[in-house]
Amino acid sequence: MDVVESELDSTPDDVSLTPGEVAARRWQLLTIATVVIIIDQLTKIWAVSTLKDDPISGPLGSSLRLVYNRGSAFSLGEGFGPVFGVLALVISIAMFFIVKQVERRSVVFGLGLIQGGAIGNVIDRLFRDGDGFLGGAVIDFLDVGDWWPVFNLADAGIVVGGIMVALLSPRD
Q1: Other C-beta atoms within 10 Å of 61: how many?
Q2: What is the span of the domain harbouring residue 121?
Q3: Which of 33, 109, 143, 156 could form a disulfide with 116 if both were Cys (CB 3.0 to 4.6 A apart)?
Q4: Among the options 40, 124, 143, 155, which is catalytic?
């Protein structure tokens, strides 16, 4: 009788993955995050070496131009880079533990994009020239015109991953 009652008490959101499945989800998360970090950092290295003197114009007012962002997304919060960096690290670590409750691989993929993007920008804050702990500037270089702020591939990973998680997560 206890087994039947406990089965009735469980909700569809309860995810009971085996330890092997949890390990697989964590590897998927870390693999996706690592790919995002590598691509993000390689494109930032390219942007710093190529775009430091002249932007590259594109269609419809778009361009590739180098911007050093010391704030948060869209260059808001100038001077709060260390706060955003610590917050990004905490969220990235939390995702490693949250993923054990995620059944859908597509949601894990979205979390990996978010985690990789967050860590990619934290790497900039840690290792780029700047003042103090996490005081470095994030390299932004993708400019799609006056209607959107300059961003980078880490930012794109965070936004796309966030949309994926929001749209693909189970609802009550």
Answers
A1: 11
A2: 19-168
A3: 33
A4: 155
- Residue 89 belongs to some domain of the structure: yes
Among 160, 22, 13, 168, smallest CA distance to 106 is for: 168
Least Cα distance to 104 among 41, 33, 12, 1 occurs for: 12
Mean pLDDT of 122-143: 85
Per-position DSSP letters for 12-30, written without gaps between them: TT-----HHHHHHHHHHHH
Strands 56-57 and 63-69: antiparallel
Split into its structural domains, the chain has a count of 1
- Report the alpha-carbon distance of residue 124 to residue 139 in Å, rounded: 7
Does residue 155 carry a catalytic annotation?
Answer: yes
Spatial separation of the C-alpha atoms in residues 48 and 71, rounded to whole Å: 18
Sign, CA torsion 131/134/139/142:
negative
Q: Which of 40, 124, 140, 143 is catalytic?
A: 140
Per-residue pLDDT tens digits for 79-119: 677 788 888 889 899 998 999 899 899 999 999 999 999 99
Task: Confirm whether 91 is domain-assigned.
Answer: yes
Return d(Cα 111, Cα 161) in angstroms, integer: 6
What's the pTM? Answer: 0.84
